[in-house]
């Protein structure tokens, strides 16, 4: 199972890394605003939070955050492979909040820097109880602890510009729970709380709920994913994210996202649902649906502000390339989120 990153092991090291910012897309964003249609609520779910959705404003671009790639390059100094610096480290990726106090404390510094630099912070919330599958553990101890943690993240973020992805895998794993299992309702309630809290209290945050990835074992069909997304608050003002920490090539993941979007429009009454795609590791057009450190992966398209009429808002590197998915595949014995120098060098030089 995927883990958000082994941030606790290196938080003190990366705290000393100079965080710089990089411009992507265009200053200020000038795309067309999204519609304001309403999603239908299910019998046991509240209506989706509806707030007018203006064009995306990234300020002067996305903020680069400390990670193991930057820390490794600093340690290597002049010996570092320049291709890694140019093709991986030069691009901004997301900061994963996993409920560990050490890396979570860095959020305050990143918020301050984003405001000072007039940049946009990318965050991933990855701390829902049983995040590694309902049978796999991980995350907050219970729903009450999770709610308290979300409140703290929201308070720390304040009115800072941010792109926030909510809980990779959480919806994908929901149907692993029996319909009447209390843990299922608790999970959906926790996701609704996270969405509502950020939308209502963080007006400059763009919120996207994880919607899994295309095809392969464990995937959720688009119509069902649209149901789940609507149940937790996805609307014309709250989007969804696809291929987070995934490898699905562009054609497959685009088709998957558009089918979800069509279902949200046709079956749930939305006008213009929006989405983002994680392209950091999906550059190889051939994929056998192996999800955990598969061989031969390549860098995908770099981060970019898109805002196209078909629903795509941004290409993002949500999970940093050349970081491990855990003790599996080409990285046995590694931790989830651990930087893999040999893989970074290979990915920096190999092309489709």
Question: How would you describe the overall organization of this protein?
Answer:
There is one protein chain. Helix content is 33%, strand content 11%. Helix 7 links the parallel strand 5 and strand 6. Helix 3 packs across helix 10, helix 6 packs parallel to helix 7 and helix 8 packs across helix 9. The protein is an alpha/beta fold. It contains 10 helices and 10 strands. The strands form 2 sheets. Strands 3-4-5-6-7-8-10-9 form an 8-stranded mixed beta sheet. The N terminus is likely disordered.
SSE map:
Elements: H1 7-14, E1 21-22, E2 62-63, H2 68-76, H3 82-89, E3 95-97, H4 101-104, H5 106-117, E4 121-125, H6 143-157, E5 162-166, H7 182-201, E6 205-210, H8 222-232, E7 239-242, H9 250-268, E8 275-278, E9 304-305, E10 312-316, H10 341-349
Parallel strand pairs: 3-4, 4-5, 5-6, 6-7, 7-8, 8-10
Antiparallel strand pairs: 1-2, 9-10
Q: Outline of this structure?
A:
The chain is an alpha/beta fold and 352 residues long. The chain has helices at residues 7-14, 68-76, 82-89, 101-104, 106-117, 143-157, 182-201, 222-232, 250-268, 341-349, and strands spanning 21-22, 62-63, 95-97, 121-125, 162-166, 205-210, 239-242, 275-278, 304-305, 312-316.
Uncertain ranges: 1-43
The Cα radius of gyration reads: 19 Å
Rounded mean pLDDT score: 86
> Quick one: overall form?
globular
Number of helices: 10
Helical percent range? 25-40%
What order do the helices and strands follow? HEEHHEHHEHEHEHEHEEEH
Distance between the termini: 27 Å
Query: How many strands in all?
Result: 10
**What fraction strand?**
5-15%
Strand order in space, largest sheet: 3-4-5-6-7-8-10-9
Structural class: alpha/beta
Largest sheet features: 8 strands, mixed
